[in-house]
Design brief:
By secondary structure, the chain is mostly helical. It is built from five helices and no strands. The relative contact order is 0.16.
């Protein structure tokens, strides 16, 4: 139980990578068409981006909930990941993939250490 925070952060990182690979490599055509539908429905590109991030959070919630058999871990992981994605998109201009992954891993680890680490 002492390393649960670490396992959650690792699975979140893997889930993020899997989501990217699935959406851009496997379901690319569907994703582009879906983005076109979303763009027609919402009033601005920002709303479309928020919808994308929420759908990614739902993906993370499902993956974490299944792997850890805990809806609580799934929801917390998805929400913290969503919060970090929104914050770093708004406030950080560096899009280096390694810095992106490291930022997520450190903040998600600290979040789950506070909850499950003690």
């Amino acid at each position: 139980m002492e390393l649960l925070w670490f396992y959650i952060a690792i699975i979140l990182a893997l889930s993020d990578i899997i989501h990217g690979k699935l959406m851009w490599n496997v379901f690319n055509d569907f994703y582009v068409v879906f983005a076109g539908f979303v763009n027609e429905i919402v009033s601005s590109p920002v709303h479309g981006w928020v919808i994308h991030e929420i759908l990614e959070a739902i993906f993370n919630i499902v993956v974490l909930s299944i792997i850890f058999l805990s809806l609580e871990i799934g929801i917390l992981g998805g929400l913290v990941h969503l919060s970090i994605d929104i914050a770093h998109t708004l406030f950080l201009k560096d899009k280096n993939p390694i810095i992106h992954r490291a930022l997520h891993f450190v903040i998600e680890s600290l979040f789950f250490i506070l909850i499950y680490g003690f």
